[in-house]
Amino acid sequence: MGYIRDQVVVLKKMSIREWDRQYFLYGKEHGLLLAVARGAMKISAKQASQLEPFSFADVMIAKGRAYDHLAVAVRGKQSKRFFSVSAYAVAGAFSDLCLKLLKPGVADERIFKLWVELSGISSQIKAEISPLRAQLLFSAVSLRLLDLLGYGPFFKSCAMCGEAQGPTEVFYAPERNAVVCLDCRGEVSEALIRVPAHAMNLLQFLRSASLADVLRITAKVDLIETVVVMTREICKHAPLDREPHGFQSISKLVADS
Ligand SMILES: [Zn+2]
Question: Could you say which residues of the chain have pLDDT below 70?
Answer without folding.
Answer: 1, 39-46
